[in-house]
Amino acid sequence: MMRLPIEQPNEPDETLTFEQAMARLEEIVRLLESGELSLDETVRLYEEGQRLRQFCEEKLNAAEKRIKMVTLADNGSIRVSEFEPEL
User: Fold this and answer.
1) Is the pLDDT assigned to residue 26 strictly greater than 60?
2) Domain layout of the chain by residue ranges
3) CB-based contacts of 20: which residues, under 8 Å, 6+ apart?
4) Exposed end of the chain (fewer CB within 10 Å): N or C?
């Protein structure tokens, strides 16, 4: 059985960046896919991964709200509008 070397915090903290959270998520996926973890470690990592996924989703949503679209109107003027993703 593989033992995890370092206990990770349960909740993403204020200083965690999107990139750090994604890197940790990738590490969690690698560990879960290895099949070498105990059931308890697997569940703990899955729960941590879900918290990190939510953290990343919130960061992406916040960034999306900050994006402005700049377009050129028919009369040649520049128009700035909110970004609205296509679903």
Assistant:
1) yes
2) 18-82
3) none
4) C
Distance CA 44, CA 53 (A): 14
54-85 pLDDT tens trace: 999 999 988 887 777 777 778 888 878 777 76
Q: What share of the chain is helix, strand, coil (3-state, %, to 5)?
A: 50, 10, 35
In the 8-state DSSP scheme, what is residue 4?
Answer: -
Token pair 């994006």 is found at: 67
- Supply 13's token pair: 């903290």
| 78-82-86-87 Cα dihedral, nearest 10 degrees | -170
